[in-house]
Amino acid sequence: MKYLLPIFLLCLMVVIPVGVSAETVLRVGGDATIKSDEVVDRHYYVSAGVLGKVSMEGEVANDMVAAGRTIEIYGEIGDDLSALATNVQLYGSVGDDARIVAGEVVIRGDVGGDLVVIGGMLKVEPTATIGGDVFIFTSRASIEGEVSGSVFGTVDQLSINGAVNESVDVKVKDGLVLGGEAFVGGDIRHTGGKPVRRSAGSEVVGDVIENTLPTMDDRERLVRNLIPLLVLLFSAWTAYLFSPRGLQRLVLNTIPSYGVNGLIGFLILFVGTLASLVMLTTVLGLLLGIIAFAFLVVLLAISLICVGVLTGAVLARLVIGRFEVSPLWITAGVLTSYSLLLVSVVGPILFAFIFVVALGGLAKMFFNAIR
Question: 69, 169, 276, 288 - which has most CB atoms within 10 Å?
C-alpha cells in the first residue's frame, strides 16, 4: 500500500509512440529505436508494448514519454523524460525532470531537474549528476553520484556514497547507510527501524535527526490492509447494482483497445491535472479550474473502482472464454487487483496500468455520451 499514493500522483502508463519527424505519428507495439544520427525536433511518445524495447541514441528536442519492457537512453532529451518499463537505463542526458516507474532503474548520465522513481531498485552511479531533487519510492536505492538538491522518499534499503548538496529526508525500513564517500550538505531527517549507519569519512554538515518507526502488531496490520479492500469491494458492488449494463459496456469498449485508452488516461491524468492547476492560479479561470479539478477527482475515483471490474472481466475471459461482469467476477477482480499492491515492484505497476486504462475508457465513454 505504500506505493499507492505515489502511483496516483505520478502515474506513467502505456502511451502511443510518435515517429522521428516534426509531425506526431501514432503507433502501438514493436521495438522502437532512434539512431544516433536522428533527431526528433518535438515531443517523442513511444510505446513498445509489454515485451518491446525502446532505444534512444539520437536527440529529442522536447519531452520523451516511453513505455516498454526495456528502455535505454543513450542520447539527449531536451526537456522531460517520463518512462514506464521493467528496466530503465539512462546513459545520456535529460534536460529537465525524469519521472520513472520501473522494476530496475540505473542512472549513469545527467538529469537537469528532479528525478522521481517508483519501483523496485534505483541505482545512481558515480558518473551521474542530478540537477534538482531526488524522490524515491522503491524497495532498494543507492546513490553514488552527485545530487544538487535534496533526497526525499520511502524506501526499504537506502545507501548514500556520493554528494547530496542539500538535505536528506527519508523513511527507511532497514536503515540508512552512509558510505565513506558520502557528503550531505544539510540535515538528515531519518525515520526507520534501525539507526543511521555512518562509515568513516562520511560528512554531514547539518544535524542528524532520527525517529523510530512505530511498531504494528498483526491485528493492526490486518485491519490496515482490509479496510481499503472492503471499501473497494463495496464500491464496485454498488456500481454494479446501479449500472450493470454500463460496466459491461465499459469492459467491451476498454479492454480490446487498451493501448489507446491508456494514452487517453495518461493525457487526462497528466495534462488535465496540470491544466486545472494552471486555471486555479488565475482570477478569471479560478471557477473553471475548481470545476475541472473536481470533475477530475470524481473521474479518478470512479476509475479506481473500475480497476477491479476490468480485472475481473479479464479473469472471466481466461477462465470461461468471454468477458463477463457479475458479482462473482467483480469480487475476484477486486481481490486480484488489490493483491497486486502487495506484490513488490511489478504488482503496483500492473495496478497503475489497469487504472490508467480504466480512466481512458471512462473518459471516452463520457465523451461519446455527450457528443
Answer: 276
pLDDT value of residue 10: 46
Closest CA to 109 of 61, 75, 66: 75
pTM (global) more than 0.90: no
Q: CB pairs under 8 A, 24+ apart, for 33-40?
A: 33/57, 34/58, 34/59, 34/60, 34/75, 36/74, 36/75, 40/64
**Cell 569519512 belongs to residue:** 201
CA distances in angstroms from 119 to 11, 75, 100, 156, 356, listed in the order given: 12, 23, 8, 12, 17
The per-residue DSSP string of 213-272 comes to PPP--HHHHHHHHHHHHHHHHHHHHHHHHH-HHHHHHHHHHHSTTHHHHHHHHHHIIIII
Least confident of 145-159, 248-262, 274-288, 290-304: 274-288
| pLDDT (average), residues 286-309 | 85
Percent of the chain with pLDDT over 70: 85
Please provide residue 186's backbone torsions phi and psi, each rounded to the nearest 5 degrees: -130, -150
CA distance readout (Å), 174 to 155, 184, 187, 195, 208: 9, 20, 20, 9, 17
pLDDT digits (tens, 9 = 90+) for 21-72: 344 444 556 788 889 988 888 888 887 766 789 999 999 988 898 888 899 9
Predicted pLDDT of residue 367 = 83
Residue 212 burial (C-beta neighbours within 10 Å; 0-12, 13-18, 19+): exposed
d(CA 58, CA 165): 31
* Residues 56/72, Cβ–Cβ less than 8 Å: yes
For cell 532498494, the residue is 140
